[in-house]
Amino acid sequence: MTEEHATQLWDNFRMGDSQALATLFEVYYDALFHYGLKLAGDEELVKDCIQNLFQKLWRRHENLRSVQVVKPYLFKALRRHIGDETKLLRQHRLLPSYSDTFDVTYSYEDFLIKQQNTQEQSQQLLAALNKLSKRQREALYLKFFDGFSYEKISEVMSLNIQSVRNLVFMALQALRKALLASLFMLFISQ
């Protein structure tokens, strides 16, 4: 779906078109679900939060603003909703613990889908990625797996644009350094 079409659906939904909201739900559900899993790690909680988010959007549709890009708006709303929900569950002692920071553990499936590398290179890259800070991993995930611009990442993560650029730059530098070191070790061993 083009962003222009998504924006038109958003505007139709704001004017009371429930089918437009249903279409947005269908289009963005998978991306929201995968992102939510990276935040909370609990499938049922994420499913509930997505459903509650869209119900909340419907109840407030007349008061919502127009958006230029729908996907980052929904990501940010889901991030806030999961944070609120987990805090509430923790207060009632129904959830043992939750960190409102993004906790990504990259898996082989993520890379096989997004990147065609040899298994050894993927293993080295995974090891290097998992050594990054949580915020660096979140910024890289949004930038390279979801294709967000720095501006949209800054909105989702509630950071200024320069901080996002710094996070991505530092993460890429750390990855480059780790991968060069492992390539050097591989070269020496042969």
Plain-language structure description:
With 190 residues, the protein is mainly alpha-helical. The protein has helices spanning 3-14, 18-40, 43-59, 70-91, 108-114, 119-130, 134-145, 150-157, 161-189. α1 packs across α2 (18-40) and α8 (150-157) crosses α9. The longest helix is centred in the last third of the chain and has 29 residues, at 161-189. The model has no long low-confidence stretch (mean pLDDT 83).
Break the fold down into its secondary structure elements and pairings.
Blueprint: H1 3-14, H2 18-40, H3 43-59, H4 70-91, H5 108-114, H6 119-130, H7 134-145, H8 150-157, H9 161-189
Output mean pLDDT.
Answer: 83
Number of helices: 9
Q: What proportion strand?
A: under 5%
Q: What's the architecture of the largest domain in CATH terms? A: Orthogonal Bundle
What Rg do the Cα atoms give?
A: 19 Å
Task: Let me know the number of strands.
Answer: 0
What coarse outline follows from CA principal-axis ratios? globular
Topology-level CATH name of the largest domain = Rna Polymerase Sigma Factor, Chain: A
User: What is the N-to-C order of secondary-structure elements (H for helix, E for strand)?
Assistant: HHHHHHHHH
Q: How many structural units, i.e. domains?
A: 2
Largest sheet: none
Cα distance spanning the termini: 48 Å
Helix content: over 70%
Q: Low-confidence stretches at least 5 residues in length (pLDDT < 50)?
A: none
Q: What structural category arises from helix and sheet content?
A: mainly alpha
